[in-house]
Predict the structure.
Amino acid sequence: MTDDRSSTNMLEVDDLAVEFDTPAGKLRAVDRVSLRVAERETLAIVGESGSGKSVLSRTFIDLLAGNGTRTGTIKIGGRDIDQLSKPERKHFFGVEVAMIFQDPMTSLNPVKRIGAQLTEAMRYHLDVSRAESDERAISLLEQVHIPSPKQRMKQYPHELSGGMRQRVVIAMALACEPRLLIADEPTTALDVTVQKTILDLLDELRRERKMSMVLITHDLGVARGRADRIGVMYAGRIQEMATADQLFADMRHPYTRALLESIPDPSKPSHTRLQPIPGRPPNLLDSPAGCPFAARCRNAQADCLSSEPALSDDEGGAPSHVYACFHPVGTPAGEAALAANRAAGETAAGLPMAEVEGELV
Amino acid sequence: MTNVADQIAARSGEAPAAQEDAAGGPKSQRKSPLIFKLSVIWLVFLVVVTVLGKIFGESLPLLVDPNERNADKIAAGPSWSNLMGNATFGQDILSQVVEGAWISLFVGLSVTLVGILVGGAMGLIAGYYRGKIDAMVRLVINVTLSIPALLLVIFIVTIRGQELFWVIAALSLLAIPAIARIVRASALQVADREYVKAAEVLGVKKSVILFREVLPNVLPSMLSFAFLTTGIVIVVEGTLSFLGLSVKPPTITWGKIIAEGQIKIDETPHMVIMPSLVIFLTVLSLNFVGDQLLKRYDIKEAGIG
Amino acid sequence: MAGSGTAHLRERDDVLVRVEHMVVEFPIGRGQKVHAVSDVSFDLVEGETLGIVGESGCGKSTTAKATIQLPRPTDGSVWFKGQDITKFSAEQLRRVRPEFQMIFQDPISSLNPRRTVREIIAEGLKVWGDNETWQLDRIEELMEAVGIDPRYGDRKPHQFSGGQCQRISIARALVLDPKVIICDEPVSALDVSVQAQILNLLEDMKARYRVSLMFISHDLSVVKNISDRVMVMYMGKTCEIAESDELFSRPTHHYTRALMAAIPGVQTVSADISIEGELPSALNPPAGCRFASRCPAATATCRTEEPELRRIDTEGEGNGHFVACHFPALD
């Protein structure tokens, strides 16, 4: 996959695959994902549950369940994480790259004071005295806009609200000044007004610290507002990747389109009929041949069922917009496929057109 | 929600959540560990031997009249003709242990049964109906559990007499609050589940909900605790009869055998060891079975939920 | 305590449910109470979907549950068919239950794991009906209506996906032919693409079986899509109530505006409104307007006098747009 970004990529992932050995067989949670995140860039990875986005994000800080195996390379700040020596590893994760998770309540130790948790990472990774780490901790709490930071240092997590706890989690992640921040659904568990303030905070911090960010979310709206580039994941693969503007103005992958059509849009009138995506995501234990979305796709043709499309870009179009589809939306091939399916009354996968665009008629 | 991949990421190594296939049933751990199988075998064996021993007595091989004295074998150690050795007057210890098992098992099971019926009912009602009923039940439980157990039992048995009935009654007073507490905790948890609330919304009567929705889901933890309780009761009864406070002679009990053997322990160690060994194995088996039952239920819960 | 008013209650023949001055307080020991719902009134007309929206702690879920007396509200009345059901005895209440059904947030735990799907759906009939053939047909009909293949009727809940379990819940709720179905965050636990299936299904069932819905959610986009009328709640009080489209095109309460501004990726209000700060304590709610501590337009009046719901659109047209604010943002 060609990328015209500068060579100072903060994150470089090549051909990443993650497989889990389960009692029911081998499960391919992430399937040949490659991506780049430049310095100071935010990449959003959007997907529903089962898309593999969480597994993917955890590989960036080398977290993998016991029964999982990873292949492919991950380079953070130019360093291959599998080539790190033991002493290097100790001070890499949490320092160069840090992660914040969805649920602030389980990210924080309920029986440890906030101050202790903040300074813990600092004292482990950086060579700072106790007094200095305390000072830094207070300064961090100020940067994440927590009022009365000195008092907060002595409090326990349960004494803070959900939004505040997530701010503390962010402060902890930033304690050692990482250059790459992975945020896995950081606001899903929060109220929508709090969500906005947290996302605003992340934006602000990112600009101030010149950090790159990978934002994992199931909410296309969040991705749209906050990311420079968006990657759409389905069945463990990236199906479409583009800048935020490109994606919404010119989407190519039928899954992206189907996703947008199934989400209620507040700018549309009430009782607007939604177009759900029929069926369910494929069973990753027993991946079907061909495109994983074919069974639910409006444009599906015979070739979609037998071979898997590779990521490629528009001929003559922007090289930064790639998608994996033989009959993409908004292209002659795609229009022809759709027309053919409409004429036949069903897709090549045997899905009646009424189910897959019935509500739009 | 086939979020299998995400679930695996979060819970390393465990079996994936229920699959959506016709195979049906979650992929739970179906293999029982060896210890569980051995425990079950021992318990079944014990019960069968005890019951047969009670019915057929000496007609069974290896068993003789437990009271029959044998001058040749006074305080003899284990031998091929007397597998567990002989007692102070030459009685066959094996036969005595089989005879004593009857009392221990009968008391153990009776007390547990009373405990489940009374304590279980108390816990269920308290946990589901809450409010004043719950407050009252909690008070009763706490008060009863605060009284020193053994002293209470000794007191009752001394005052009322060493009849089987009173031994069972006294021990039940200990089992009831313990079981009630466990069942109450479980009932509280189940009552909060949404399908119980859904039944209320449908207009099902509360008493019906108690039996059809709450009880079946409380039963596993109740039964598992019952096994543990039986073990404890057997030990307590053994202690009582060791102290001479359980059923009176000539009824043979395990504790009595131990008490007799203990008098001249250097001459008759086997009189102490043999019944103790049987008690140990029995209680251990009960604990393992109870434990495993609970594990199976938890896995089922996790697999389903 | 000054109430949030009842100006928005309608005098129509087809009003199904009318809640007046509902108060729900939970004692938590040491003489303290959580003020979950403080004087909320609303009504529901036949064939209407009332959306109740708000963030955590606003009392929307408690309001819905208290309407069907689960548990009974601390104070206030709920009028149904001319009677105040808060005054019913336990048995009277049980008899009125078939009229009010409920769908819960977690699709899987709202179904008894030991029952088959058919048994779950039929449960209501077992309580209230006799075992006649036409009733068994009804179960099959409902299963098909909600999109569950009747051939799978003997399977257990864990064999179905979240979306399918929610369909089963809907079928169970419909089996007693209720007048009102309370939907407590029914799509929050589902994937985005499945949400659309369930929302469409609810609209279809509403039309087919002529039920009214009370739809509780924290997701504004979802609420707008499915509701006819929307009520915005904050800390146990009503802030604003209006028809769906009207509320979203003209939000006037500052909290409503902040909510809309917070919808990610969409521009619904012109200004960028962010509200900082924390929710005040639910044990000791502030006097005056409960939103005053975080409101960008709060004045001294707001902190002392509680606002009542007032109509802000033209009298006599439609169901009205009401706002409880001393200085609403009337553009």
